[in-house]
Amino acid sequence: MVRNVASLVVAVTVALPVGATPARADTRVPEVIGGEIATPGEFPWAVRLSMGCGGALTAPRLVLTAGHCVGATGPNHRITVTAGSSDLKSKDAVTVKSVEVFRSPGFVTETEGKDWALVRLERALDLPTLDLPEDAGGDEGPFTVMGWGQTRESSLKQERRLHYAEVPIIADRECAKAYRQAGVELVRDESICAGRHGVDTCQGDSGGPMVRRDAAGTWRQVGIVSWGLGCARDGYFGVYTQVSKFRDEIRAAISKLG
Ligand code: ARG
């Protein structure tokens, strides 16, 4: 979340060796997300969580989000989910409370991987759900990412309307190399890096889905917005939880929680 990553930015910036300062880190970052506003109904399973994260309706009563957005596994009535509209203030938007959270076993912090969680809602929503990947393949991109988070690294504002952008995959090797220089070790087999110049997710987008269409044209969730060093900085890409890696575990948790 905003706080977590803000502190990561500070920690990482302090840890930067001389000469490893991210190129143009302090220049203005253009609109993250590429400035596109989703049309109503375009991503009907995208939801907003009250702590300032995104998520996706993965079953009528379950939201898939990031582990770092929620607390520990157990009863939880503190989260309000806004669903049913890309415009949070639209009269079509519905709100529903959480009753329970299931966070990935072994989750510690977003940079250490396993960054996924399920939020169980007090009632089922009559909305389309977002499918998980059909198999372990399909993690090649390009992907679509979305959220109601900041459109600039320096902005403190969250958006009323859902923004989205298309981003290519970045090789783990390249992504890990940049982050290693900044003192963070990428958990390669649990992460997908994605982004392009000036286009990225940002604070407040965490937990939101990264998707692609399968051969039949159905959206599939391939990632979960997890972390990054600042937003859309040259050489540093967005890091997403690799959903295919956790697909069976998530599926099992979904059928248990219903
Ligand atoms: N952890 C952030 C959040 O809580 C998401 C950061 C994504 N950053 C990025 N550069 N892609 O909203």
Automatic annotation (TrEMBL):
It comes from the Bacteria. GO terms for biological process: proteolysis. SMART domains: Tryp_SPc (SM00020). Residues 32-255 form the Peptidase S1 domain. The keyword Transport does not apply. Residues 1-25 form the signal peptide. GO terms for molecular function: serine-type endopeptidase activity. Keywords: Disulfide bond, Hydrolase, Protease, Serine protease, Signal. InterPro entries: Peptidase_S1_PA (IPR009003), Peptidase_S1_PA_chymotrypsin (IPR043504), Peptidase_S1A (IPR001314), Trypsin_dom (IPR001254), TRYPSIN_HIS (IPR018114), TRYPSIN_SER (IPR033116). This is Putative trypsin-like serine protease. It comes from Actinoplanes missouriensis (strain ATCC 14538 / DSM 43046 / CBS 188.64 / JCM 3121 / NBRC 102363 / NCIMB 12654 / NRRL B-3342 / UNCC 431).
